[in-house]
Write a structure and sequence with these properties.
The protein has 9 helices and 13 strands. By secondary structure, it is of the alpha/beta class. It folds into 2 domains: 141 residues, Murein tetrapeptidase LD-carboxypeptidase, N-terminal domain (Rossmann fold, 3-Layer(aba) Sandwich), CATH 3.40.50; 152 residues, Glucose Oxidase, domain 1 (3-Layer(bba) Sandwich). The longest helix is centred in the first third of the chain and has 13 residues.
């Protein structure tokens, strides 16, 4: 099928703020709303964004799903900003309607646990935006490069166009590859394995190459190794034409086997004979302030060279899996 690129944002457009996963501090939602208003948009805080909480969840699953579906159905709302990740997005899947999502495409913005929703949208045939959320908009300088990059994509009249440069890393594997850009939080994506939303299996029938980006937080080196070994054992790993290793944060290192996460990933790939694809380490994506927005489901090119890595996505890239 073809991927649908949501329409760009224009001044005066409404942007929904909702909480599909964990509880969020009200101040982050309020300040993100002010940020959007100051930028010329109309923030719409969905009814259950601020609760009432259901345990660690921002609200009961039915209420969180209702907010998300209402945002998609509302023709005035042109983008959906997730307030935070945490845990709980996958609980909404049985309550969502992929036809509604595809018939009312709009940018869904978020990362971390929101990686599950990105997988859902791409499976429905709608491009999605792995990008900073409400806390980032509330706390960072409005001119922070990740924020300016986010709105450059959201406001692009001819579709998103990016060219990101990442400094060289001593473990980089050189080369160039093109494919459909997918990825996100590795633990979340690993949890969707062998489901209709398995991001690694999307487009399997067409043998579409993938450019995969991964990141995570608070996962031990051995836990990430286990996830990657599962992926290596699937037929889908052969479709990964390029790999972007983002930030792995808040984990204990060294462990008894590896000094850090990047060394483990590099060693694992080499030991399994994966030495013929470009691999970029230290790319600015993940649970840090340096979290560049990445459009999921669109065609991109990754080039890794001694002087650094470049990720390019040209406007008008509307082709998805056949």
């Amino acid at each position: 099928m073809d991927i649908i690129i949501p329409e760009p944002l224009h001044p005066g457009d409404a942007v929904a703020i909702l909480s599909p996963a964990s509880i969020v501090k009200k101040e982050y939602i309020d300040r993100a709303a002010r940020f959007l208003s100051d930028r010329g948009f109309r923030p719409v805080v969905m009814p259950h964004a601020n609760g009432p909480a259901d345990g660690s969840y921002a609200a009961p699953a039915a209420d969180r799903a209702a907010d998300l579906m209402a945002a998609f159905r509302n023709p005035d709302i042109k983008a959906i900003l997730c307030a935070r990740g945490g845990y709980g997005s996958v609980e909404l899947f049985p309550l969502l309607d992929p036809e509604t999502v595809r018939e009312n495409p709009k940018w869904l913005i978020g990362f971390s646990d929101i990686s599950a929703l990105h997988a859902y949208l791409v499976a429905a045939g709608v491009a999605s935006l792995h990008a900073p959320m409400a806390k980032h908009l509330a706390e960072e300088d409005p001119e922070h490069y990740t924020i300016t990059s986010l709105f450059r994509i959201l406001e692009a009249d001819n579709g998103p166009e990016i060219e990101y440069f990442s400094p060289p890393h001593p473990l980089d594997s050189y080369g160039e590859a093109s494919g459909t850009l997918v990825g996100g939080n590795l633990a979340v994506l690993n949890g969707l394995a062998a489901t209709p939303y398995d991001i690694f299996a999307l487009g399997r029938d067409a043998d579409e190459p993938l450019i995969l980006f991964i990141e995570d937080i608070s996962e031990a080196i051995y836990a990430v190794e286990r996830m990657l070994r599962r992926l290596l054992l699937t037929p889908d790993f052969s479709r990964i034409a390029g790999l972007i290793v983002g930030n792995f944060t808040d984990y204990r290192h060294p462990d008894r086997n590896f000094p850090d996460m990047e060394t483990m990933i590099h060693t694992l790939l080499r030991r399994n004979g994966i030495n013929n694809i470009p691999v970029c380490y230290g790319f600015p994506v993940g649970h840090t302030s340096d979290n560049l927005p990445l459009p999921e489901g669109l065609h991109a090119t990754l080039s890794v060279a001694p002087e650094g890595s470049t990720l390019t996505l040209l406007s008008g890239s509307k082709k998805f899996f056949q």
